[in-house]
Amino acid sequence: MIAKNFVNFHVLISHSPSCLNRDDMNMQKTAVFGGVNRVRVSSQSQKHWMRKSSYYEDNFGPASIRTRELEKLIPLFVEKLRDEFDHDLIEKTMELFVRTKIADDESDDTDEQGEGASDDGKSKKLAVAPWVLEEIKVLCGIVKDTSLTEEEVSKAKEKAAKQKEPKGKGKKKKSEQEFIDDALTKKRVKAVQEKIDSVRRAMASALDIVLSGRMATSGLMTSVDGALAVAHAITTHAVEPQDVDWFTAVDDLTIDAGETGAGHLDTQQFSSGVFYRYASLNLKQLQVNLGLIDNIKAAETAESRQRALDIARHIFHLLATVVPSAKQQSFAAHNLTDFAIVSFSDQPISLANAFEQPVKCDYKEAGFLKPSINALSDYWARIHRAYGLEEQALAFAVEDGIKLNNKPALDSLKAMEDWIANGGQA
Fold this sequence. Notes:
There is one protein chain. By secondary structure, this protein is of the alpha+beta class. It has 15 helices and 13 strands. It is globular and about 85 Å long.
């Protein structure tokens, strides 16, 4: 049997009244699907809380540090790397990591990051970049060992001397030192590209970048194609999040003084529902990002595939158990997954269309959960039959008696994790 490359995770979780993800207006995030309104939890929110969870750190190690505040981050990394590199080198490397200068006279007014260049020809800093200590450590070594030869310095000076008068009001010629700095930056970037394997291995110490990827088009930052795709979670049924919690805060001191009324009044929107979470893991891309195989077309080894499967089992655990913490002190919607389907497939396959026609509440057995489980299972069977899919699929369920493709659902989360780690084999 040819090993399947994609692991598809389909998770149903019923949340009690809550407000897990809000927009800029402090309202619940929503989406229209199947012509009706659904409550939504963004993929960004899900991934954020997964990588911030204790389970993530226990099994994957520390996540990257995501920030745009170099001034705050530099002292942290300087302290950690002070025995190997001096302060100025670390700072220069970190600046090169997220920004470069416009390299030549032919460059237009848009920098390589997709934002406008500043008047002095310098690129703007990325809004937020993920930082990995081990990666910066390797980059510092490359930057330290890369310098210009006398011939390269002479060529930069010649280029400065031959530059034309720039067009445009207020624009000035670049200085000789700027040409030298640009040449050095180019050489350092090239040196990084030549040693990209060592950079990737260092970067792989932060698994959140390996999974979610990273976009970069300049500096020493390396672009990474994410191995894990995560969908926005939506309710399987229509929800109009119009429930509003009108709450008060009592001021004890004013009450003691004989005053009546609350010290604070406010409102918070909330709702409840059964959410469909979907994610797909590309096992070979994961192995590439981990530095275990050279490229997506390379043959995987038994060891590299097992490493990817071990990560897949933990991803399922995170999807099944991690809940955003927003407003949890007020609502405590710490609900766990009720039902899940995991499949090994030749392609990513979402089952969201199982709920394109919103699930209706079964008033004989009140609730949305059971009809949602039935809708998901039935749709998987129809898609499997219609497209002749040869998936290795199994279900996990908290409730007894549930089957998928005539196979009883597993009643233990650990049993499902073990099945995933074993490549979909019993």
